[in-house]
Design brief:
single chain, alpha+beta, 5-stranded mixed sheet, 4 helices, 28% helix, globular
């Protein structure tokens, strides 16, 4: 056998005394899987969840990403503080934060936090990624879920990757970061 720089051991690690516990847990997990028992159980659906019927991760990612955009759009609107739909989408205790450089800072909670986020970003466009993979089924759309949406301030040349955490289809935490960006043309391929 020929050793390459990538096949040499980098450390000699003695077997741990608790290795038998890890082996037993691993075997139990495999047995549970083979017998059809769930290995990890998602939290039970929360009452009032309006997305219970979503069946695949692709549908869920699209729905929640669209909701994240709706939250920012409604928060940016002049009637954002009195918007019943915004109040429905954002939990009163939902914490909002936005960082820049190496400093993160809280913006507030609930609708006021959402409005502070929209005011800080001054976004004029957004992209979010679709689910371009196998239509994977989900157990509980109402359980805690996360999506990332990039909000772009074209004039300020800032992009804000923002992670929205949802429970029961409502925003419960939002954390974003400010990044500068540059754009320009790309030469077309010449064959």
């Amino acid at each position: 056998m020929t050793l390459t720089p990538f096949s040499r051991p980098v450390a000699d690690i003695a077997p741990a005394r608790h290795a038998w516990v890890m082996n037993a847990l691993g075997l139990a997990s495999i047995a549970a899987f083979l017998l059809g028992a769930p290995v990890a159980v998602a939290g039970r659906p929360v009452e009032g969840c309006d997305i219970k019927e979503v069946k695949t991760i692709g549908e869920l990612q699209y729905l929640l990403s669209s909701r994240a955009v709706e939250v920012v759009n409604r928060a940016a609107a002049s009637h954002g503080g009195n918007d019943p739909r915004l109040q429905q989408l954002v939990a009163p205790a939902a914490a909002f934060s936005l960082g820049a450089g190496d400093v993160g800072r809280p913006l507030g909670t609930g609708v006021a936090g959402a409005r502070a986020l929209a005011r800080e970003m001054k976004a004029d466009t957004f992209p979010f990624f679709g689910w371009d993979f196998i239509p994977t089924p989900i157990e509980d759309a109402c359980a805690r879920q996360k999506v990332v949406v990039d909000f772009i301030n074209s004039r300020g040349k800032n992009v804000y990757p923002v992670t929205f955490t949802f429970e029961a289809g409502r925003v419960v935490t939002v954390a974003g970061w400010s990044r500068s960006f540059e754009t320009g043309p790309v030469e077309p391929i010449r064959d």
